[in-house]
């Protein structure tokens, strides 16, 4: 048995550049959503942000110390 080609129709979905309210729901009440997420998961937020803030502080302190090292 031979293979027969099958014609397919492609369907392309696109958003109109004139439609402005596509992502309005994402930005609606953003501070409220962030507050809800952080208050719900404050332990996870602390465990994530704690090391990041610590590393950033350490790097800033190290760079400042390195800049002032030539004075001694």
Automatic annotation (TrEMBL):
Keywords: Electron transport, Membrane, Mitochondrion, Mitochondrion inner membrane, Respiratory chain, Transmembrane, Transmembrane helix, Transport. The keyword Protein transport does not apply. The keyword Electron transport applies. It is a single-pass membrane protein. GO terms for cellular component: mitochondrial inner membrane; respiratory chain complex III. Pfam families: Cyt_b-c1_8. One of its GO terms (biological process) is mitochondrial electron transport, ubiquinol to cytochrome c. InterPro entries: Cyt_b-c1_8-plants (IPR020101), Cyt_bc1_su8_sf (IPR036642). It is found in: Mitochondrion inner membrane. Belongs to the UQCRQ/QCR8 family. PANTHER family: CYTOCHROME B-C1 COMPLEX SUBUNIT 8, CYTOCHROME B-C1 COMPLEX SUBUNIT 8-1, MITOCHONDRIAL. This is Cytochrome b-c1 complex subunit 8. It comes from Capsicum annuum.
């Amino acid at each position: 048995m031979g293979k027969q080609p099958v014609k397919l129709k492609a369907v392309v979905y696109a958003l109109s550049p004139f439609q402005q309210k596509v992502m309005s729901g994402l930005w609606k009440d953003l501070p409220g959503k962030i507050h809800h997420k952080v208050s719900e998961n404050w332990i996870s937020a602390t465990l994530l942000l704690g090391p990041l803030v610590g590393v950033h502080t350490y790097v800033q302190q190290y760079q400042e110390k390195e800049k002032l090292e030539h004075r001694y």
